[in-house]
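pasting for the record
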Amino acid sequence: MKTIRFYFDPISPYAALAFWRLPEVLAGRSYAVDYLPILFGALLKANASKGPAEIPAKRDWTYRQVLWLARQQGVDLRLPAAHPFNPLAQLRLAWACAPDGLTPSRWVVERLFDHVWRAEGADPNDPERLAQLAQQLAPQRVADEALAKQRLREATDAALAAGVFGVPTFEVDGKRIWGQDSLPMLAALLDGDPWFDGPDWEAVRSVPVGVVRA
């Protein structure tokens, strides 16, 4: 059985939508999933980029689009009290729930996404809500706080080294598929579409850069 590496940060509504739809994509296909919480902000910083919620006009569009996409998927996505927010508490909690050598379970990841994206108008970092989330996940928690921080750093650094630049990203056999809207592409890769072994996959690297903005 092959493994899909699913890189995510609960700050991303697109990652939440991809997570909720992934079982549909995997139906009838024999794949395991490793859920890898990483810090999206670190990816943005490393690539001197901004997230969609940091560009005013794009921010408005992002929320409109994810609400529409959720409606199309039949999921009850709700916007949090404020966005973007600092997701470190949720990310570290995810790693605190992962046994040594393993990644968090789908059940744990689902609790994180529900905490952020299914409680309308709620603050993901409200101390009382975080305490309730930690209590809900308490039976899963096996790592101490320092180790959880370390594992988050290591996972984020490894993602950057592998070429991950955004979330959600799916990796299969060294090939990375980025974005909630690329789930059909992921399905084709899982089904062995020969295009992925053809010349186009690597040829894009040889396209010259025409202009570099100052």
